[in-house]
Design goal:
By secondary structure, the chain is of the alpha+beta class. The chain has a four-stranded mixed beta sheet with strand order 2-1-3-4, with helices on one face. Strand 3 and strand 4 form a beta hairpin. Helix 7 packs across helix 8. The termini are far apart. 34% of the residues are buried.
């Protein structure tokens, strides 16, 4: 499989974690969002939406991270990323959709770029926008987080697939994460696991060289 990805894209990061958790071999094909490669003719031929990620399964090209994650869970059910109980699965899906629908879309590259370039907002305003929506979203996630373990149970699963990339981005934008100790603890537990470590943006082929 080939995963068209940008190293800092939270949607791509989700797919990298899930593929690693399921032990699925894949090739990373970088798409430089900052350079606008996603809007170019070559990539539009791969994904007409002009977005990342795209997963080329060998038989088809799948788009939109949530749809791809559901396909992965159906096609490769072991190890499962959702709990066995139907109510618990619905709860985890609700947490994932809260991140995917209520937090991430308001803070993606296109929105931040529009604030800067079209609306003429300065960097402090853009950063404040980002922090507001992330913090507001994290409040309910923190209330749902257990004191130990993970959002969906005793092992990391789909909720962590969504949470960890959003936490990474929050740190990049210097969001105050002190009010979210349970989420921070879950993120720290995930960071110790190889599947999450290998998916980290700093370890991707298109990540810039470390400074210093």
């Amino acid at each position: 499989m080939k995963l068209y990805s940008y190293f800092r894209s939270s949607s791509s990061y989700r797919l990298r974690i899930a593929l690693n958790l399921k032990g699925l071999a894949h090739e990373i094909v970088p798409v430089n969002l900052v350079a606008g490669e996603q809007r170019g003719e070559a990539y539009r031929a791969v994904n007409p939406q002009g977005l990342v990620p795209t997963l080329d399964t060998g038989d088809a090209r799948l788009v939109q991270s949530t749809a791809i994650l559901e396909w992965l869970e159906e096609q490769y059910p072991e190890p499962p990323l959702y709990p066995a109980d139907a109510l618990a699965r619905a709860r985890v899906r609700g947490l994932c959709q809260h991140i995917a629908c209520e937090i991430q879309p308001l803070n993606n590259l296109g929105v931040l770029g529009y604030l800067r370039e079209t609306l003429g907002q300065d960097e402090d305003t853009v950063t404040g926008w980002y922090a507001h929506w992330v913090s507001r979203g994290f409040e309910s996630l923190e209330a749902a987080a257990p004191a130990d373990g993970f959002l969906g149970g005793t092992a990391p699963g789909m909720a962590e697939v969504f949470l960890v990339p959003q936490f990474y981005n929050a740190r990049r934008f210097a969001v105050d994460l002190a009010p979210f100790p349970r989420l921070a603890a879950i993120d720290a537990r995930c960071a110790k696991l190889d599947a999450f470590a290998r998916a980290h943006p700093d370890r991707q082929p298109d990540a810039p060289p470390a400074q210093g």
